[in-house]
Each structure stands twice: as structure tokens, then as C-alpha cells.
Design goal:
Distance between the termini: 44 Å
Number of helices: 2
Strand content: under 5%
Order of helices and strands: HH
Largest sheet: none
Radius of gyration: 23 Å
């Protein structure tokens, strides 16, 4: 997703340990994880609402069914 290697991850960990200190680092990580989870959940909810509002799942399934039927017709000929 972010294409972060092991070296970059270690560098981030060392810098955050130096800046925050060992006392505040666990609570900062916990807070960051909660924030990321909240954003993921909101994005998922928004996507579900958009799909529901515009019936995108049904439109996708209809287009996929048409592709499958075309493939079957090609195979028959």
C-alpha cells in the first residue's frame, strides 16, 4: 500500500521513539491505529452507501452476466 521497506520502518520507529519517548509512544501508536481503523470503516461505509444508492452491484452483475453469455455464444460457434 505505502511501499515501505524494513529500513524505512525501522527509521520511522527510531525517530518516533526519540521524539515521543518510551512513555508516550504506546499511546501514540494506539491512537494512530484507532484513527486508521476509523478512516477505513468510514470509507467502507461510504462505498457501501454509494453502491446501495446507485445499485452499482446489480449493474456490475448485469454487465458480468452479459460477458459470460457472450463467451458462451462464442464457444458454441
Amino acid at each position: 500500500m505505502f511501499d515501505i521497506g524494513l529500513l524505512e520502518l525501522l527509521l520511522i520507529a527510531v525517530i518516533s521513539l526519540l521524539v515521543l519517548g518510551p512513555e508516550r509512544l504506546p499511546s501514540a501508536v494506539r491512537s494512530g491505529a484507532k484513527t486508521i481503523y476509523w478512516f477505513k470503516r468510514q470509507a467502507s461505509n461510504a462505498k457501501a452507501e454509494i453502491n446501495k444508492a446507485f445499485d452499482l452491484n446489480e449493474a456490475y452483475q448485469d454487465s458480468r452476466n452479459e460477458e459470460i453469455l457472450e463467451d458462451i455464444e462464442k464457444d458454441k460457434n
